[in-house]
Predict the structure.
Amino acid sequence: MCSVEAGLTAGGPAPAEPEPAPALAELTGSSVTALTTWFLEVVDGYVVTEPGSPEWAAVERRHAETVVRVLQPAVEAYPDVPVEWEVRRGPVVPTLLEAAQGWDALVLGSRGRGSIRGRLLGSVSQRLMRSAPCPVIVSRAP
């Protein structure tokens, strides 16, 4: 299975070109898992902590809609590639490392913060490249 993480974190979507994931999947005869994560969300001044609550469902729905919107152009460009959409709650790096077990590849977007800002703010792609159980492809918008 070729899998993609949409680059969606608390700061919003990473400005990436998502097309490498379905292109790779088409070349290898694989599928794509479009996965986004969320960890802490505040709704009406309260941190969302209760699974199954209307607030929890609203957060999950918002993240699902965002990942579909971000990746839809790439999915439409490769209509024969099967895509599974997934939203998981948890810190982004551990959540993706857990999800990536058994994947052929992990495709990420990059915010392109550079070495100094990336070191100060932390780089999801750098941490995943060091720890992922599969090859990691980092895609930046042109």
User: Anything to note?
Assistant: The chain is about 40% helix and 25% strand. Strands lie at 2-5, 8-9, 12-13, 32-38, 42-43, 46-47, 83-89, 105-109, 136-139. The first helix runs from residue 20 to 28.
